[in-house]
Design a protein that fits this description.
The chain is α+β, with helices and mostly antiparallel strands and 59 residues long. The protein has 2 helices and 3 strands. The chain has one domain. The chain is flat.
């Protein structure tokens, strides 16, 4: 079974930010999550760890 996770923005573009599948287990495929900027507006271009933390927080 597949479940597509999308909002209005994604729906208008035929896009899904996540697809959840189930069977013997559950798998979640993610797309479009990123964190290029810190909350204060600074670029995180050279700070991979901060980008990962921001992306996980977004999820």
């Amino acid at each position: 079974m597949k479940q597509y996770v999308k909002g209005d923005f994604e729906e208008q573009r035929g896009y899904s930010r996540a697809v959840c599948t189930s069977g013997q287990g559950r798998t979640v495929y993610l797309a479009g999550f990123g964190c290029p900027y810190a909350p204060d507006g600074r670029s995180l271009r050279d700070d991979f760890e901060a980008q990962v933390r921001g992306s996980v927080a977004e999820i």
